[in-house]
Amino acid sequence: MGVSHKGAISLGLLYIPIGLYTTTRENDVKFNQLCKDTKERVKYKKYCPSCNKEVKTDDIIKGYEYENDKYVIMTEEELERIKTKKDKTIHIIQFVKLAEIDQIYYERNYYAIPETGAEKAFDLLRNAMLKEQKVALAKTVIGTKENMIVLYPTEEGIIAKTLFYQDEIMVVPKQLPQVELNDAEVSMAKTLIDSMTGPFDAASYKDEYQVRLRDAILQKIHGEDIVAVDTGVSNNVIDLMEALQRTLAMSQDQRLSGTA
User: Please, where are the H alpha helices in 135-239?
Assistant: First the structure.
């Protein structure tokens, strides 16, 4: 697993060199785009209309369009010059309770791994945050963006969670209308939730559609036809209570049969 970003957690005079490593990987089936007629893979080239030629990676520089077709060029050296010492570290701003951060702000997770020799300071910070039930809110520059980061302590280590800024969050596109719920409806909904409540076990879940997709690809490779797995037509239930009662009955049947 390659390191995604190297830096250091800084808190006052405390300096803890770490690396950030991605916590997830993609297992999805990837499709290529093919020409409809020749079935050949479509290729994309970076092209300069003035040079009338394909542009290689080494010939590409960064430019910001400040007016139509007018660009100011920014070199990698210039981008580095505007970084402060703090920008080059994951500097802790404050400690907060995790529950105070709305889930909508979370972007992606990284494993924070201490460099050799920094393990004790790293574990001291992790242990203290864990005992105080607090997380650290920090900032660092990665590429050309200053990232907000939450350092979240666990029993095994620290997870670095990047956050969106407030101005990156879209407003709710439509406000929900106020509705009235009667006691019977609320009670039935609570019963349904209780009947489907259980401990979370991540290992018990898998992407079932991806399994069917891989099987379908193998069938096509072997010249077989794809057969529809579900041709049934669902019955729309208009009455809310009837829908809840049917769903509860289905949930109980699944529990008895051991299926989810």
Answer: 183-195, 208-221
